[in-house]
Design goal:
single chain; about 260 residues; alpha/beta; Rossmann fold; 2 domains; six-stranded mixed beta sheet; 11 helices
Length: about 260
């Protein structure tokens, strides 16, 4: 078994002549937190869409757990254990926090969409749902309607529902976007906590977050890999600083992309 759970080889995506992703080869090691960063328009989200098959590559190949998945459909990708946070976000605002997590747990029971199942069957998942809510510090909100949650807590719920799907690889798309400082700090620590022993690939604009939790960072610029390495390595790379239009690591700290 390869040490890399996910690999892309020479991935290219063109849109009517515009090259959004240009010859990207990624290697995501098992049991690590790998961050994909870059300035606006760098191709980060397009890369994510290629990995989850929301988009089809123009050329190149994608491998997951030693299987080629280049031509597979999004549902096949999810069944393999690649779960993207926004795909199963708390999309049921009028359900409780517990009920949202329980829907994620139903996937393993084979009754994912049987919302009409008896309470007895669904309630058998409550303990597991509460355990996940404990992991993300949401147990006290278990019976709260999701629509009433503050934004940062909704993002934590999104992570809990992702965990409920029992992913082999978690893809987190801008998990701290739009958050205030306190929420950013909470969600950063949460990702670090749930990432122990798991593999996470995340797109993130906040360099402070990446500095705290990423084992490896891939920097994209204009659709291509500009640099790769630890935070210390990429934050002191002149090309990276230029791409973020800064000249010092301090300016890179606050960069958005």
């Amino acid at each position: 078994m390869s040490e890399y759970i996910l690999e892309t080889k020479h991935l290219v995506k063109e849109f009517r002549g515009f090259v959004a992703v240009n010859d990207v080869s990624l290697q995501v090691k098992r049991g690590t937190i790998h961050a994909l960063i870059g300035p606006n328009g760098a191709g980060k989200t397009t890369c994510f869409n290629l990995l989850t098959k929301f988009l089809t590559p123009t050329s190149g190949r994608i491998f997951f757990a030693d299987h080629e998945i280049t031509d597979e459909k999004p549902a096949q990708i999810a069944r393999r254990g690649i779960i993207r946070s926004f795909q199963i976000s708390a999309v049921f605002p009028q359900l409780t926090v517990l009920e949202n997590v329980r829907i994620g747990l139903q996937r393993k029971t084979g009754v994912s969409f049987h919302f009409w199942r008896s309470d007895r069957i669904l309630n058998s998942l409550n303990d597991a749902a509460l355990e996940l809510l404990n992991q993300v510090d949401l147990a006290e909100y278990a019976n709260e309607l999701t629509v009433n949650l503050p934004y940062g807590r909704k993002r934590a719920l999104e992570i809990a529902t992702t965990l409920a799907m029992d992913p082999e690889l978690m893809l987190l798309d801008e998990p701290t976007q739009g958050m205030g400082h306190e929420d950013v700090s909470r969600v950063t620590q949460l990702i670090k906590k749930v990432g122990a022993g798991r593999t996470i690939l995340m797109v993130e604009h906040n360099m402070g977050v990446v500095a705290q939790i990423a084992d490896k960072i891939t920097v994209l610029a204009r659709g291509a890999v500009l640099a790769e390495g630890t935070y210390q390595e990429v934050s002191s790379n002149a090309k990276v600083m230029e791409a973020y239009m800064g000249t010092t690591t301090g300016e890179l700290e606050g960069a958005h992309g």
